[in-house]
Specification:
Elements (H helix, E strand, L loop, with lengths): L3 H18 L14 E7 L4 E7 L4 H13 L1 H7 L4 E7 L5 E8 L12 H27 L3
Antiparallel strand pairs: 1-2, 2-4, 3-4
Length: 144
Amino acid sequence: MFSKEEAAQLRKEFWTSFGKSFPRKWLLYNTKIKGFTFKFVADKKKAMVCLDIEHTDEIANELLYDQMLSLKVLLETEIPEIIFNEAYELESGKIIRRIYVPLDDKFNIHNKNTWRNCYEFYMDVMPKFELFFYEYEDFINQAI
């Protein structure tokens, strides 16, 4: 068991190590679509690559998610293991729309032996997400 400080230090080390091992500028929050962001997630139980739809306007949320659903078959062609969840509950209890790919292997951010596999997973999946976004950005933007 780790103290709060040790856990925070390990999280920081995880992300710093990822950035140094795989230096690259990621799209993440720079989609130019409000409430439409790509994220890397890593915690004690899971790792995943996500597209989160969290617009402050609920109608815009629904429209963006519906637009992505209309592209679902195309996205599944590029990333077969993708999951669409219109009511994903975050640890905070907040419900968002999330489209994501989970790392199938065991992962724990506190276990450095699992880090490399996670990094490789990120490097495999996120570029596919980004490429898909760039290809369909104009269409997605039409939703709102």
